[in-house]
Every structure is written in structure tokens, then in C-alpha cells.
Amino acid sequence: MTAVDLRSDTLTMPTPDMRRAMAEAELGDDVFGEDPTINRLEQRAAELMGKEAAVFVASGTMGNLLGVLSLAHAGQEVIADADSHLFVSEGAGAAALGGVQVRQVPTAAGVMAAEQVRGAVRPTNDYHAPLTAAICVEDTHNRHGGVCWPLEALSAVRAVADEYGLAVHMDGARIFNAAVAQGAAPHEIASIADTVTFCISKGLGAPVGSVLCGSAEVIDRARRWRKAVGGGWREAGVLAAAGLWALDHMVDRLVDDHANARSLAEGLAELPGVSIDLSRVQTNIVRFELADMSASDFLAGCRERRVFGGGSGRAVRFVTHFGVEAADVQRALTACTEVLSAS
Question: Which of 13, 19, 227, 336 is the most core-located residue (most Cβ within 10 A)?
Fold first, then answer.
């Protein structure tokens, strides 16, 4: 029986047509700026995000790292949600490589209020504290269940940034999920940010890569950092071709992932011992708490039934994506029901 793998949308596989586009890609050496397919992807990405320039990078983590290092200097600080991917899941790269620390702001749902951000800005006349350089927002927010930042909340944070002369970086790994869920264009969401990164390797289904977008000046700095961390590509147009194909064919279908996540969440909400906030199931991530068993035991039972997920403590995460159909959601719900009934 084929597994229903809900561990992450990074598990998407390229389609035959995407593989064909990769095989037929026009190539060159990107370190010399001569890969035409990468150049087209970067131009397309910049246009979609409403920015001047873009640089193709290996991962969302690299994109966030280059964004932060291009906006902040050693001894400075960036403000981010305490559960942000930047702070929790990126190996302290900004601190290790750039000497930039993260000022953590706890939130209930991953969306920092303007007053929270204002309160986290360091005073410039206190020599004991680092200077604040930038604010980082994550849209959609992974650890808070794929919630979208309301556009007005993004604008309010931008206003605080302008008030204090700060930059804004957006971890937009799943910005297309946010755009589809909110009925907004990606550039509307990205307009509040000086830099924004998005992944082609999650819901869009490409095998590798992210793109960092911003002003020409900032992206030029990011290219220097990319080289310093060993991120220079050679004939990587084979990967960029997948991203171009994904932007043409995989964005509109994200609505199916969202519908499957909603169906999964509503089914889980009916099961005994499951606590889930349906208001946070806005895109393709479903997070829930178990009352009477550990996540590890629950997931072990699911694995026995060929349904895979992630979690720790009593919290479980399922992520819908390309390759997971409505019938797979029902299989997952059946497995969850059996595991909880057997506990």
C-alpha cells in the first residue's frame, strides 16, 4: 500500500513535465552570470515580488541568512517571532557567520503586533544593548500552523520599521500559499519587505532551491555573501528550470492543498483526545494536540498504517501537498481514528 506522507511539503516530487523542462534547460556558468535559465528565474521572481533584483539560492535557510546578513552587521540585532524558522531552525547561522543576534518576540499565533515590535526596538543611546537593524516576519508561519499574516498587520510592522529607520526581511518560504489563501498577489504581501525569500521546493514541487528578492544594491551584497558561504552555482539552470515550470503550473493548484488540509483538520476535530484550533488551519499545515498519548506513540501507530507525520511532546503536524489527494486524507483520518481508539 502506498504511504500517505504528511511529514512536509518538501516531500513533493517533480512531475514528468517538470523533469522534461529540467532536461531541456539552456545552461551556462552562473558564477559568471551566464546561465540563461537562472537569469530568467531571477528576473521572473523579482517581478512577482515587486522587487528590482533576485538571486537563486540553495534553500530557504540560505535565503534567510543572506537576507539578514545583507541588512544587518556584526553586533546588531534583528527582531523576529520567538518560534520563527529563522531563530529555531537555521542553526544560528546569522549569529555564527554574521555576528547578528535575534531578539525574540513571543506571540500567540506567529503574528507580531506593531506594539510588540516597537517594544523590542533597542534604544540607540544605550551602549549596553545592540542596535536594532531589521525586523523579520514569516508568512506563512510554519510553527503556528501555516497561518497568514493579515495584510494590515504587515503594514503596521512596516510603519514601525519606517519610524525607526529599520529594514524588513520576509521569510516567505510559503508566500504563494499566503497569496492563494488571501486572494492577494504575492507582490502585495512582499511590498512591506526590503527583502523576501520564497521556496520553489515546498508546495511548488521543485526539487531544490529558493529565491531571495530585493533592491539591486541589497541583492548585490547577498551575492557576495552567497559566494562566501559556498553557494555559487555553476550550470544550475537544470534546477532553475524546475522553478520556472513550477511558477507557471503549480501556484494555482495550492488551493487543493488548502482544501485537503481543511478537510483533514475538520475530521481530526471530531476525534476524541484531539485538540485543534481550526481558525489556524488557513493553508496547508495542520497542527493539533493530543490529550491522552504522546506524539511519538501516535505517530508510531500511524506509521504502522502507512501514514507519516511529524511532531514532539503531545503536538503533531501534518502537511498536505502535491501528491496527497482527497482519498489520502480519508486514509489518514481512518488511521488516526484507529490509533486513538487503540490507545
Answer: 336
